[in-house]
Amino acid sequence: MSASAVQFLIFSVFLFLSLSFAQTSFRPDALVVPVRKDSATNQYVTRINQRTPLVAENLVVDLGGRFLWVDCDNNYVSSTYQPARCRTATGGELATDIVQVRSTDGSNPGRPVNVSRFLFSCAPTFLLQGLANGVSGMAGLGRTRIGLPTQLAAAFSFDRKFATCLSSSTSSDGVIFFGDGPYRFLPNIDASQSLTSTRLFINPVSTASSSTQGEPSAEYFIGVTSIRIDNKSIPLNTSLLSIDNEGNGGTKISTVNPYTVLEASIYNALTTAYVREAAARNIIRVTSVAPFDVCFSTTNVLSTRVGPAVPSIELVLENENVVWMISGSNSMVQVNNNVLCLGIVNGGSNPRTSVVIGGLQLENNLLQFDLATSNLRFSSTLLGRQTTCANFNFTSSA
User: 3-state secondary structure string, the chain?
Assistant: First the structure.
């Protein structure tokens, strides 16, 4: 039996056990966890409870991560910990333990629920290097059998859907829902309504730093077909927007990249057009501020409900009517009182993925990932609907 087949068998057995040991007296329709932007790293950090007795774990959210992993070298003590007697590609040990999260009716968090045999990787401390201060691991939301969305859905028999809503604030929580909507934000706005739908693609070749040969990518890819600036298409080598047989190219969504990263020719075409459209609005370009190349004076830039009044960026998907609109709140970074920079960076000439939509571009956007149907439903900015991702009411209803 091949290594990948053995790994699949182990995953399947332990996922079945997690179903058997989920709390059965109460089956929620959905779950909710908070997520907050870390000011030092721009990473997004969520919290769950784990172990016996329960301990709050702060975890960096990795949208395309294959599983939950936690540092076990630093005083991981739990009476319910059980090793799975095999190792993962990160060098850690697969194990099971209790995980506890809050249920939700879509408006508030409800009673906590437990999964008694949640499968995760017990990893070494050095993997925490580069992560936000105070975190103990990463929460992988990728499309695998042991990613958080699939394990939680299986444990409580709800839809294999989850939704992210990242706050731009470093002092107010955004939210991640597991399960279907409603997803309500103050003042009583159900952000799951009026979403645009597009297909999710599976990259047949893993994009992880370490993986089993033949394993597909756990990350979430969408089909961008063209890019417009202020409704004007920019010239692109469209072959870069497709995924080739070796897994190169395409467009993915990432929470670990703080800003959108573009292949060099796409970046050059976009920034050239952006600077031209900004100049037509009398917006003045100024000296670059690392890591950004394209920066502007705030003079002549008005403020609007959806951020600075700057040229819009439109990602065109299946057709001209399916468009992810990126307005000023999701395109600009205010580096000081006088300077705004375009929050997009150059990924060089041969990146693995041509377009990586990063954290800034996701903030205050509701994104619902449907793993069963391979569909993404997205809102574009909620600021236009007079709410934000920081407006979920975390006051408990229970």
Answer: CCHHHHHHHHHHHHHHHHHHCECCCCCCCEEEEEEEECCCCCCEEEEEEECCCCEEEEEEEECCCCCCEEECCCCCCCCCCEEEEEECCCCCEEEEEEEEEEEECCCCEEEEEEEEEEEEEEECHHHHCCCCCCCCEEEECCCCCCCHHHHHHHHHCCCCEEEEECCCCCCCCEEEEEECCCCEECCCEECCCCCEEEEEECCCCCCCCCCCCCCCCCCEEECCCEEEECCEECCCCHHHHCECCCCCECEEECCCCCCEEECHHHHHHHHHHHHHHHHHCCCCEECCECCECCEEECCCCCEECCEECCCCEEEECCCCCCEEEECHHHHEEEEECCEEEECEEECCCCCCCCEEECHHHHCCEEEEEECCCCEEEEEEEHHHHCCCHHHCCCCCCC
Q: In the Cβ-directed half-sphere of 12, how many Cα atoms lie within 13 Å? A: 6
pLDDT of the residue at 373 = 97
pTM to 2 decimal places: 0.92
Cβ count within 10 A of residue 335: 14
Q: Tell me the HSE value of 85 on the side-chain side, using a 13 A CA sphere.
A: 5
What is d(CA 44, CA 244) in angstroms, rounded to the nearest whole number? Answer: 30
The tens digit of pLDDT for each residue in 195-244 reads 999 999 999 998 876 666 778 999 999 999 999 999 999 999 999 999 99
| Integer Cα distance of 273 and 86 in angstroms | 52
Distance CA 62, CA 85 (A): 25
Q: What is the dihedral of CA 151, 156, 160, 163, to 10 degrees?
A: -90
Between CA 324 and CA 327 the distance in angstroms is 10
pLDDT tens profile 342-397: 999 999 999 999 999 999 999 999 999 999 999 999 999 999 999 999 999 999 87
Q: Within 13 Å of residue 273, how many CA atoms lie on the same side as its CB?
A: 20
